[in-house]
Amino acid sequence: RANINGAADELLVTISDTNAPSVSLDLLNGHMWWTEREEGNIKRANLDGSNIVTVLDSASINAPWGLDVTSTKVYWSEYWDKAIRVSSSHWLVQYLSILPGFVCYR
Predict the structure, then answer these.
(1) DSSP symbol at 95
(2) In this model, does residue 45 exceed pLDDT 90?
């Protein structure tokens, strides 16, 4: 994060993925979310970078690509499965494929 003019930048989270992650902010609940495509993870942390949690991992999802978070839902696309999925932002144990077979362009 940084000031509006770009000064006083501060590193909040370090990731190992070499692909640029998709990032989404849930300001209402005080979280930032991101994808790790190579690892197959969706992670969340507090806005200050503390309390990093792997919410979904490669056992549950396949190459997360895009990501959008609302106060109650998380939407993500899966590159290899060509699907857009949605789940509760609080308990991402079960999810629903809302658009299987879409075409994903790089």
Answers:
(1) -
(2) yes
